[in-house]
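User: You have something folded?
Assistant:
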Amino acid sequence: MFDLKLAGIKGFIVTAMWVFMALSSHVHANPRYASIVIDADTGAVLHESNADASRYPASLTKMMTLYMLFEAIQQGKMTLDTKMPVSTHAASMPQTNISLRAGETLRVRDAIPALIVRSANDAAAVIAEALGQTESNFGRMMTEKARKMGMNSTTFKNASGLPNYEQKTTARDMVKLSVRLMKDFPQHYHYFSIQSFNYKGTTYNSHNRMVRNTRGVDGLKTGFIRASGFNVATSAKRDNRRVIAVVMGGKTAASRDQHTAALLDRCFNKASAAHIAASDIITIGSPNDRKNLLAEAPIPITKPNVSTDNQPVDPAAILRGELTPVRDLPNNTDLPKNNSWAVQIGSYFEPDRAHAQAQAATRWVAGEVAVVEVEISNRTFYRARLIGLKKNQAHTACQSLSRNGMDCMVVRSHG
C-alpha cells in the first residue's frame, strides 16, 4: 500500500513539474490574467500572480455597491423594506437586468439578490441613485470608500461594472473588498450563497456555479465584460479554515471556475505539500524549477475538459496519503517498462464519461484508452488516460492535446 501511495505522490509531482514548465507560456498568452489567494483569518498571501496589475473589475464592482448598501442599512439610512425609485436612467441599463421600468420602485430586499444572483445592472443603478443621487456621484463615493479600505489602485465610475475605460482595480484590491464584506457585514454574507430568486413571477438563477460545484465555496461574485474576461471573487471554508480567492481574466466561465477550484485545493493543502521530501520527487526540469514548484508556482488558466459538469479530483489528496489506486481498466500489467507512461486527460464521477473523454483524445494522439479507478476521501473517481506510451511520447502527446484545447497531465502508468 505504501508503494502505491508513493507512486501516486511521484505521479502527481511529475504532472506538477510538467505544468510548471509550461506555466510561463500560458500566463503570457493571457495578458488579462491575475489572481490572488489569502488566508481569511491571518491575511497571509497563499498565492499571487499579477495581483497588482491594473484590471477591469466588471461585475465584481457590484460587491462595492452592496458594501455601500449594507453600510446604509447598518447606519439606519435604509431597511430591507425601503422602496427605491427606478429612474429612466436605471431602467435603460442593458443586460443583464431584471427589466425594471421607469416610475417603479425596487425594495432593498429584492435589490440585494438581484445584484448577487442576476448581476442586474438596472438594480445597481437604482441603488446608486438612492444613495448618491446620481450614478456618477455614487462612483465617486465608491472610490472614496475604496481608498479608506486601502484599495488604492481602484477607481469606480459606475455601480454595475459596465464598460468604462477609467474603472480599474487589481486582484489584490478585490480580495481586500471581499474580506471587508465578510468581516464588516457577517449578518449579510449569507446572501452571497443564494442560487436563485424570484422577482415579479420570474425566477433567476445564479451565474456563480462555484457555490454549488466546488467544495467549501459559500459565496461572493462573478463578473464578465469583454475587456476583463471572466472574473470571480470567491470564499471557501474547509476544516475550520477559510481562504478567499480572486481570479481575473478567465477565457471562459468554465476555465475560470476550474482554475479557481485548483487554486483553492492547492492553497488549502499547501502545508501538506511542503512536507514532501526532495527524494520523493521525480527529476524533471532544473533544481530551481523544483524549488519554485513547491514554493509558489501559480497555476495557469487552461481550457476546460470537454465534459465540464464533473468536478476535478483534489490533487492534494495524494499528498495527504488519501489516494488508494484500486485497479486499471483495462489491465496494463503486461506493458513493457519503457512504455509505462500515460497521458491523463481528466477525472470524473462516472466511468463512461472518463472513457468518452479518453476516447475523444485519440482524435489527436495515439494511445490505448484506459480508465483508472481511485478512491479519495471515501469517494470513487475515474481517471481518463491514454496508456502504453514512452516518456517522450507522453510529453509530445500532452503538448498536442493542449494545443487542441484539452487539459492533460503526464503520469506514470502503474500496472
